[in-house]
Amino acid sequence: MARLDEKIAIITGAAGGIGAATAEKFLQEGAKVMLVDLDQDKLDETAASLDAGDRVATFAADVSDPEQVAGYVDACVEQFGGVDVLFANAGTEGKFAPLTQVDFEAFDRVQKVNVYGCWLGIKHAAPKIAERGGGSIIITSSVAGIVGSAGLGPYVTSKHAVVGLMKTAAQELAGVNIRVNTINPGPIANRMMESIEQQASPEAPEAVHEGFEQQVPMKRYGRNEEVANMALFLASDESTYSTGSQFVVDGGFTSM
Ligand SMILES: NC(=O)c1ccc[n+]([C@@H]2O[C@H](COP(=O)([O-])OP(=O)(O)OC[C@H]3O[C@@H](n4cnc5c(N)ncnc54)[C@H](O)[C@@H]3O)[C@@H](O)[C@H]2O)c1
């Protein structure tokens, strides 16, 4: 018996580093998976690379749009017969700038994707998860949901906000047997950190990379699969008494 046999999962941000690595693990463990991301071509590429036949499906949606969120949840129910797990993982780093210089629209967009995207996912998926007797909602926060980071104000604000969202949802949904937790990754080696490094110092992004590494007691970035392993634990029945908590995957970053 595999760890996610009989489970149906939605993963948002599924064409990105952490999302695709998690989809691979979920599929290896027997789940059926609905991949959600902005761009259909990238979703098709991801689905093809996963090579999981009819256990994988795709839905292009902007997670900040209420109708599109309802659309991906309905599509999952139609395709696979329900939802057991929502991995609300889509996110944007936004523009690197001090708070006094961030545009209203730029700040707003980061909250819409990173915060409203998770809330809308909970709003539409939780009733469907409850219909199947309960399950797991996992939100990707960040170490930026625990500590501040100069230049990343909109992102840090959004990643703290989803911790409050998670704690409240955990209390509201415990009665229908839905667990709600965040994963809080430290710097992970993928597109998002490369973008942050490039924005922080277009002339010397590698110096920013080294600076982040030095802040991690383990002296390295994490890998997408290391975050996916935590998502697998939280999606599986191994985590049935865990709710309302932050699960940190950061090489010791927030112990400092
Ligand atoms: N990479 C890191 O170091 C790191 C650290 C902590 C937390 N995180 C969080 O992990 C999550 C996954 O990011 P990643 O590291 O895989 O980076 P990534 O950029 O590879 O993946 C993010 C994915 O989200 C998608 N996305 C963005 N806006 C969307 C929207 N409006 N609707 C639907 N999809 C949208 C992107 O298209 C992309 O595929 C994000 O929430 C991110 O904030 C990343």
UniProtKB/TrEMBL annotation:
<dbReference type="GO" id="GO:0016491">
    <property type="term" value="F:oxidoreductase activity"/>
</dbReference>
<protein>
    <submittedName>
        <fullName>SDR family oxidoreductase</fullName>
    </submittedName>
</protein>
<dbReference type="InterPro" id="IPR036291">
    <property type="entry name" value="NAD(P)-bd_dom_sf"/>
</dbReference>
<dbReference type="InterPro" id="IPR002347">
    <property type="entry name" value="SDR_fam"/>
</dbReference>
<dbReference type="InterPro" id="IPR020904">
    <property type="entry name" value="Sc_DH/Rdtase_CS"/>
</dbReference>
<comment type="similarity">
    <text>Belongs to the short-chain dehydrogenases/reductases (SDR) family.</text>
</comment>
<dbReference type="Pfam" id="PF13561">
    <property type="entry name" value="adh_short_C2"/>
</dbReference>
<keyword id="KW-0560">Oxidoreductase</keyword>
